Amino acid sequence: MPTPKKGPRLGGSAGHQKHILANLASQLFEHGAITTTDAKAKVLRPYAEKLITKAKSGTVNDRRAVAAEIPNKDVVTYLFNELAPRFENRPGGYTRTIKLENRKGDNAPMSQISLVLEETVSAEATRATRAAASREKAAQEAAAGQDAAAPAEAEVTEVNEATEAAATAAAESENTTTVVAPESEETVVNINEVETQADVTEVVEEEAEAEGDK
């Protein structure tokens, strides 16, 4: 006989509760999700997850233990051959419970219990994904830094070119002043020489006129 437990029980006896859980687990494994009361879902969840854990091991002893709990051989075969491999990478949490609105009539609280059949992502894959994302982000930041540095370098180059151009212009202006200055001095000297020659000519002419008068 099943060992009775303390507190409320599904059905009127321990045997009745055992049959209720076996039927609920069979329906859950067969359809993937069922809707039942909160009390039944609360008791069914650990019961079904223990059966899935035994099915994952796949030993003959575990198969016999599951067959003793669930009399439907087709469901047991489906559990071991189809469902158990899908939970291979999941260490636990094979089922989930979702609260629903109360049942019409007796206003009983209802829940939906379903199998978590989504593929799990290993920790190594998660770390690899995060590392790849970090490398991509670093590459983008480096590219952005290079793009920001390019205009600054262009501005510095333009400033240097402008400074060099100004220095070249200043040097050219100094050279031009140095060259022009001697030319102006020579011009002044030439003018003085011309004036001197004119004065000498006038003196000579005056002397010639004076001699003529004598």
Automatic annotation (TrEMBL):
InterPro entries: Ribosomal_bL17 (IPR000456), Ribosomal_bL17_CS (IPR047859), Ribosomal_bL17_sf (IPR036373). Residues 140-183 have a biased composition (Low complexity). Residues 135-183 are annotated as: Disordered. Pfam families: Ribosomal_L17. GO terms for cellular component: cytosolic large ribosomal subunit. Coiled coil: none annotated. The keyword Methyltransferase does not apply. GO terms for biological process: translation. Keywords: Ribonucleoprotein, Ribosomal protein. One of its GO terms (molecular function) is structural constituent of ribosome. Belongs to the bacterial ribosomal protein bL17 family. Part of the 50S ribosomal subunit. Contacts protein L32. NCBIfam families: L17 (TIGR00059). This is Large ribosomal subunit protein bL17. It comes from Corynebacterium genitalium ATCC 33030. The gene is rplQ.
